[in-house]
């Protein structure tokens, strides 16, 4: 009963696991459709391949390396049967997949469907067909009785040193289906730069990578002991910041070689197969992420012509001290120039406000009447009252003379106070205003100091209010003539302020004309950078949308 229960639980777990892989496969199909909608004709096909592999939770172990590294021989030895020729089948899709299962050799063609051959007797025929037949999409050999099952495959890829570009493309295109990479090297060619570049690419893609240094029977111990040789290999890869998941030293020519790690290597492969589901679950997610990056590169390439056109336009634009390709510097300079332009535009109005405020303060602080002014005003006002009369004989003439005398006394008093307490400071302040704004105008300066604001008897008389006879009237009258005089000075001052403002406006026109071209070019640069940013935003938005689809599928799974 316990055993039966255990089997039932196990079956349930497997079912759930299969469902998880099925849902992930559906997510890859969704990603493929989204990429197709973007006009990508390459990456969706890889995702469909990845989806098919994911549904089966199939483990693919890819063998990569140089032609001379003995990959095919190693695979034949591991399988215990000579399924592979000494060189990979020379087609444009010459990655050969070998897995367990019913005995068959299949060629998947672009135009003729699937062709089947007997792997025991027709491998040469298969090879010949691949040379002369239709375009081959993939080659698959299944064979029973090996350490592989129908859910575990070995991929034999072309040599990465092939001069045939199609071979390199075939190897590269197969890597998204590889869960683990076995990178094989000839003992004598371990430190070839090509090895470092290729394995670093694999590790950067998140692939588990195991190194196999084959043909160690070539080692001559008296030249360098084997431990030192192994140390040099590890140091060489570490120098490139490559940290493989394991390194195996093997010899198929001398199985009994004391340093031969063939058995350990085969045991590691068996363990990988035992850990198939966990490895595949991690690998397909990593592959999908990488394919998203590939798709973004496709989108980027589709926008390359437009991007180059706008960048070429940027290169034609010049502003002193600015790198036109530096978007941040362009934006910062544009903001500074626009702030300067706004300040220029506002300069005259700000100056007018500032000068009017200062004029107001100057006038408010000017004291124009004192006790002596009040006394002169009192005497003057008395002479203006109805019934004012001086003497008996010739009274009319004497009265007029007295009125004139009192008026002159107030005029002299008031003129003195205005001259000392207002007029001097008024002209001094107005005369300096152009200099405050870096202006020079001698005519203006002379006009300010030539200005005369007359204080006349008429001015005094027009501020007398009929019927005012209170004791406070004298003080009110003095306040009125003070305000009236300040009003006259304000009127004159505003006229001079208007002249300074016009001078400033002309200065602004000149400066704006000089700045306008720089500002125009900066705006053109900024507009181009905004267009370029739009291209980048499209790429980021596409990437974000695809990652959201992927995350959604993973959460379901």
Automatic annotation (TrEMBL):
Pfam family, one: Dynamin_N
Entry keyword set: Coiled coil, GTP-binding, Hydrolase, Membrane, Nucleotide-binding
A GO MF term: GTP binding
Annotated Dynamin N-terminal domain residues: 61-214
InterPro entries: Dynamin_N (IPR045063), Mitofusin_fam (IPR027094), P-loop_NTPase (IPR027417)
UniProt keyword annotation of Transmembrane helix present: no
Localisation: Membrane
Predominant subcellular localization, coarse grouping: membrane
Domain of life: Bacteria
Stored Gene3D superfamilies: P-loop containing nucleotide triphosphate hydrolases
Coiled coil: 300-361
A cellular component term, taken from the record's GO annotations: membrane
Protein name: Dynamin family protein
Source organism of this protein record: Brevibacillus fortis
